[in-house]
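Hey team,

Filing this mostly as a record. A colleague (T.K.) asked me to run one chain through the structure pipeline before their review meeting, and I want the input and output archived in the tracker in case anyone asks later how it was produced. No errors, nothing strange. Just documentation.

Input sequence:
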Amino acid sequence: MENSTVLIELGLSKAESEVYLALLKIGGGKASQIAREMDVKRTTTYATLESLTRKGLASVYFRKSKRFYYALKPHKVASLFEKKLDLFNSMIPMLEIMEKKETQIKGLRFIETKEELKHFYDNVLEEYKNKEYYIIGSAPAWEGIDEEYFVQYRKNRAKNKTRTKLLLSSESKEINPLNTKLLREFKYLPEKYKFKSTIDIFNDQILIVSPDLSSLAVVIAIPAMVDIFKSIFEIIWDTLPEANTQ
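Output structure:
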């Protein structure tokens, strides 16, 4: 890769990269000297030199009212970009917070850890006492996140008189509890539909839990999408046969 191409990749314009390399080659000088070296007009070179100076890639000195320009040493250029990268890295936590706030405004919320997810489900236990919500999911994948917690969660949910309707993947049959005291109605999807995600459909939001997401889970609080998911669930539920619990 040519030197000028590398500098362009770092964010310099084509003119800036060529002038910087010319400055290095001649060891600095007046704009007219640099223009001759590059075989371009002096007036064109002035603007580029000023741009390099503003960016800290060149410096200017005055001698007898004349301007002399010098390129920043290459190792110092590397240090300059490293400092800029360090500065940006220091901003990342704040930028991520800003990004999350923006997505929450749009009706999205990302859940990053198991503890956050369990906190979400703890809130469901309180908010859905004596209520009902729908689930489309894979029991093995859901339990696999934290088996002890989710097995107990089912029991706690039943204690709060929360009823659930579940459309379960076929592999869920192996571990799906049949205890009617858990207040669960369920049907199994055909074997050809295999997935690891679980979708909880509440009155005002949807929770999608998946090991394939960049985050552990995402909450969607967009009314139109909640309505669509509810309708899809009900359509599928009505077309499936009752589960064989024997």
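Quick notes for T.K.: The chain has a mean pLDDT of 86. Strands lie at 58-63, 66-71, 108-111, 132-137, 163-168, 184-188, 198-201, 206-209, 217-220.
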